[in-house]
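We emphasize that the prediction below concerns an isolated chain of 339 residues; any contacts that depend on oligomerization or on bound cofactors are therefore not represented. The input was used exactly as deposited, without trimming of termini.
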Amino acid sequence: MKITYLAKSEKGIESYKIENESGAYAVVITYGARIANLCVRDKNGNLVDVVAGFDTPDGFLGDNPYFNAVIGRVCNRIGGAKFILDGKEYDLYKNDGNNHLHGGKVGFDSRMWNAEIIDGVGVKMSRVSVDGEEGYPANLSVSVTYSLSDDNALCLKYEASADGDTLCSLTNHAYFNLDGDFKTVLGHEVFIDSDYLTTVDDELIPHGEKRNIVGTAFDFKAPKTIGKDINADEHMLKIARGYDFNYVLNGEGFRKVATAKGEKSGIKMSVYTDRPCMQFYTGNFLSGLQGKRVYGYQSAFCMETQGYPNAQNVPSFESVKLEKGKTYSAVTEYKFDVE
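Result of the prediction step, given as a token string:
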């Protein structure tokens, strides 16, 4: 693994290149601790950039839907933009109607991080989220370390600790198209090791119900194309305009939970994580944003490993509370090969 500091942009964003022996590489940047590029080889041996984004680091400063950024303090939606912790109610910033989404108005995706090259390990991005930021209590020290193995596994290791009780549930909002052309993902073949998802209301807020999805349009246990059932007569598919749901993952500990395969490139991505859940999203709110490519409706997909969404307001969900003095740790890996 070769790590190179590339440059600092006009707006002060630093970029780092992580390359393996096959020539596959990732570029990570300090704005939002984002993945700016992820280039892996297709079935013909050509490098393909499989993540959405912009031609320059400063391009990410404009409006975009969290492209490939670390999301926090709490990813996904918190209903009513409020929660109770240790008997006290906290009000969060409402940036999704009446709800709080992906950490608020200025979440971790919109913050500058500090970067450090750790020889033989990867690039470590870190920051301190101060007490009261976006409404959350306590000072939270957080880091994500990116590495790329010679067998083409991009690994994200998260750690966080706080000086008081708070909430913490981190993810990366990477947008993938394994063909690299970002025209459509409806022909991508997907597997998700899940028998249940958390149902949502019309504002996409879960309230505790876990629906058995075996044999339904939401079931990806038997690999199928994204487009096969995306227009099925299901209320949740209609309100979300496609897939945008939290899948309860089978198994525990670090395990393979999902795969996706490009329609043309032969590139296959396997997702490994120790998280209990994964948000599968099919780019339903992309609407022609110009970046490295033009990102239209359902031109990319996300597999966001996570804790249970809205967990602090749903007692039956596994908590995302981080107690003072305890360490939050999580790991997710995106591994690439060809078929």
